[in-house]
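Task card 7
Instruction: Convert sequence to structure tokens.
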Amino acid sequence: MVLIAAQAMTPNALADHFDISRQATSKHIRILNECGLLEREKTGREIHYQLKLDKMREVDLWLEQFRKLWETRYQQLDALLANLNKGK
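Output:
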């Protein structure tokens, strides 16, 4: 996502950065596009994709509520593990 946040890229250009098939890269692009996270621009025969930063902010805000929950649960787990280690 960092790659297409900085600049618009074609699926082939994106695939060059990963150790997966071009088909797999296209599948990921399709899913991100269906979720409304990518902006698609056709220039001649090529299609360039770029990340919609405003949509990513929405996702980040949504995830924030879960981050707080996960942090609390991890802290509780750390305390439990510390108590179990004291008992040994």
